[in-house]
Design brief:
The structure is a homotetramer.
Chain A (H helix, E strand, L loop, with lengths): L2 E2 L4 E5 L6 E7 L13 H7 L16 E4 L1 E2 L2 E2 L4 E6 L21 H7 L17 H15 L3 E9 L5 H10 L6 E8 L13 H9 L5 E6 L10 H4 L18 E2 L2 E2 L4 E7 L9 E5 L4 E5 L13 H20 L1
Antiparallel strand pairs in A: 1-2, 2-3, 3-7, 4-7, 5-6, 8-9, 9-13, 10-13, 11-12, 14-15
Helix pairs in contact in A: 1-7, 3-7, 5-7
């Protein structure tokens, strides 16, 4: 459902045009310094405003309403809320009958028998990832000194990223991108063989981020074309450091002390200004759809901080289990 | 840990050279016809014997010891056991001090503080996937008429798969491959937004399969190079069928009624006959290691049936939750 | 932790003198009519104001901030918040050093290494049960036509309940009570053998209610003094109705279609006006403690509605699993 | 379902007259000495043979088939199996049509739509508690130096227990009893406020034991008749020791370092030799039933060791979570 984790457990909630979105973080150890300012940096990174992002600008001010006392976590559930203020629900009225291709309009309506909130994508909105970012800020504190950095390395197959996005916007189109993530200072021994492998847990939460289409750990797809003698990472010291890192820091599902490394593909935003043919359930036939609304031309621009935070959540859970 | 699923819940256990490996399947509906012969086809597909697979041959006869009465499932936990008979534990004695690169020898020892069973890889052995296959055979019955087919489409970057493996074996090396998987007749509405997205659940269990390095859904990596106008799958009929399937059958984490499609990279088997330099903890220095033992030259050959079964397990759980 | 349920899953949060308390309800089916007024009746029953209850009066107005659209549940997480307004934190300052006997002051401090919020009992406050009541109101709608009624049948061993409480208040003391609960129109087949027996699930959540000391199902304690020929409930019709109901509506952990019946003992409120000797960690010796603050003389008065709501939550989860 | 625990997780399986019953213990730390002899004492205590117990005698030899290597736990799932050998299935054939009152014959048939194994009670048999005992033996090692002792203190309301059982057997009847349990050397801080309170977790698993009808912690039912000034346990030293123990060692759901104490009522065995009137679904009317088979006259005799083991399992899970 909308929860993740076994010990460090988060529950996210909200709709794009509802009153509030947020997260409850359960299982956070007591005594960790935490205040509302701590969220600023990552929330700013996630916000729109940069090139290629939606003109809907939200203040995104975090309200901590439980679980923190005198500037430290209590050990009890931490609830963080964000108000939705800048909503223009009129834009989305006709999308119920004429679902946007590539979006969850059709599946949302079917799954919830038409009772889902369709305004701004409702619960399927990328806005719900604010809760993931907020939880991730806390998770990062738990797993310190682990350091996680994700970055956008490619858009539309190009590395001149800004130019590519500008051209795309002129075409009233959208474009995908590639995000890489590296985790440094990871202790040996996180994760489990099989179902709670580090790859299982990270991929589980990474695919919770809307628009992610693939994930590759270490050598990734290239592994399929390699020989064992090339792929094997020879251990060169007693702490398990290896010469190469095709494993991406994980053997048998368990961290080996080298950097965790993975990369992922983000699809182009489904909402585009260009006209598209798709089924109109009111008229019962395929008809052109032009999406007004406000949307990102390249959602991949906003993804890196969410990837970092999601990864931190997965690692925090594995770290607390391992202890 | 070693369990997966919320309603259709499996628990796998065993070590490569222990007495038995197996699985408990909890949450299987009552009244499903099930007998030991039902496992034969998929167990045969998983067994070694084909080119590129280990000379260790096991009978792999399933023993159903609970949960089935008069040829039908009871609704209670189904336990299926397999004996380990063909074990040669002597081969692996020195690997504790001199861990194989690319293998879980080092991480297993660290995680379990040296108490893990090192014989044949112990609990990290691919042999434990027998339990996944057995559970998958049951899961396939639950989700019928969904049909899942996985196949090996590439080895070492080549499609003349047998030739590539033969050459690799002559070099005492191993090689990776690509497996694709398609699920047909999938109902609309399986999965959840965010953490229990279909991609999250499938990737979680797919990365439980040893040697998998990547997973791509639908357009996968190609999405990062596409425009929205190319990537969006236009809906062409009232049941949600789309003209293209870049989504891989999933929108907003939820099945849209089109085929689920994904592909994955399998790394070359870590155990190779070729000499490799790696750290010897007994001597506290890097030294050459030659692995005798018995192993697969291309583990990817045995992966497709495990992918099918793992996918069936994930879908059976989502299917029972959705009901 | 602070969550309950497998399919109908709730997460409660908040501190007595924090900003807000509340609950997230995940897994509620879509399309159930729900508005803020629906909570009034049960919230009023839970509120103080009646004889024997604390003079701290809170408005307890529910704010639904997610999961409801156009007066119906969306199928997505429902978040309900309540403001804390009438807080007088000064009263509780010295209780950190001089923990109240019978209260969680000592265990809370130890468990959370002194970082818990001590004001008004913090997260251990009965105020957090507001979230259980709110979730229970929703659960009752799911399990309709099941009807759950709990009532206070005894206080201080007496049935002239009001008089007993008045006398207790004059003594600046508190007093315990007995609450019974009956569930009517329960379908056959809820619950599981062993760990998810109906008794297991109900007792689990009932013991989440502060001050509950015991639970008895059906014949309860009396069963220990009975013969099988007296205790067995003879089945008298094809729908499983029995002549007696010593089973309390449950056989082998599974509902048998008769009324579920249980009773529980509620201890006297730990906070009393009378002076008590207890350990003062500041002075490192036993010293008299007189508790000012505001508290209930008989917390059992407020328990029945919480018992009903908690039971509804447990049954809603079992009901959705059973489907 | 048939699993319990979040970190120390067990899964039990089997039917009374199936091939094997057993348990998988997942999440047990590595390096704990464990061999098959370790189970003997508790298995002997659980076995029949004593007065009031069934004449069905099973060897109950534990087979550890995974998770133990060189006499120590590996950290991987431990599977323990027991053969069913002494089965006489003929006895139970007619009970499908004519369900035993007080037994799960009716609810089992309804829940599993007639597909459950009815022989010897199938999965509802007390025989399945062997898995709980086996897991408990391991749990006891984890929580050492915590010591758990349960004993039968009353049968049929009398303390001359053997005499009471003998008289009951002569009447071809059965009789209930009272079991008490005390846990010594419990650390402060196990358990959580609300849903994972120690009482919630212990009662959850205790009600998984067939025939348990009630549980009282500390003062239990007596609390309902007490004043706060009597009930409060005054703290008398800096380690939290209290003068009295009405709390039963738990405040706010969390252990306070004093003994955990609880008592429970066990109903009389449902199967009795005396004739009883109950519904015959074949004839569609109430008819006398006389149960041949083999059964316990006082199942309470066998319960104490199961209570100890179940409690150890709950505490081991809370202990590992708390770490």
């Amino acid at each position: 459902m909308n929860s993740f984790g076994r010990i460090f457990k988060i529950e996210i909630f909200g709709e794009s045009h509802g009153q509030q979105v947020g997260v409850v973080v359960d299982g956070c150890p007591a005594g960790i310094p935490l205040c509302e300012d701590d969220f600023n940096e990552d929330i700013q990174r996630r916000r729109s405003g940069k090139i290629g992002t939606t003109p809907r600008i939200e203040a995104d001010i975090p309200h901590i309403v439980s679980g923190v006392f005198n500037g430290k976590t209590c050990g009890t559930p931490i609830t963080i809320l964000f108000d939705n203020t800048n909503t223009k629900s009129g834009d989305y009225a006709n999308l119920v009958a004429h679902p946007r291709p590539g979006h969850a309009d059709f599946t949302g309506k079917e799954k919830y028998h038409g009772f889902n909130d369709p305004r701004g994508g409702g619960h399927f909105s990328g806005r719900i990832t604010l809760g993931i970012v907020a939880a991730g800020v806390i998770a990062k504190k738990i797993i310190a000194p682990v350091q996680i950095s994700a970055e956008l390395v490619e858009v539309g197959g190009r590395t001149d990223i800004e130019d590519c996005i500008k051209e795309t916007m002129q075409e009233k189109d959208s474009v995908g991108g590639v995000v890489t993530c590296v985790c440094k200072n990871v202790p040996v021994g996180l994760g489990e063989p099989f179902f709670d492998s580090v790859e299982s847990c990270i991929s589980h939460i990474i695919f919770a981020i809307p628009a992610v289409k693939s994930i590759e750990f270490g050598s990734g797809n290239a592994a399929a074309r390699m020989k064992g003698s090339e792929h094997n990472d020879n251990i060169v010291s007693a702490d398990g450091k290896t010469l190469t890192n095709n494993a991406g820091g994980i053997n048998g599902g368990i961290t080996n002390g080298n950097d965790i490394y993975f990369r992922l593909a983000v699809k182009p935003t489904a909402s585009i200004g260009k006209s598209q043919d798709t089924f109109n359930f009111a008229d019962n036939k395929v008809e052109p759809l032009t999406i007004a609304g406000r949307h990102d031309a390249c959602i991949a621009v906003r993804v890196p901080v969410i990837v970092e935070c999601a990864t931190a959540i997965a690692l925090a859970d594995l770290y607390l289990i391992n202890k």
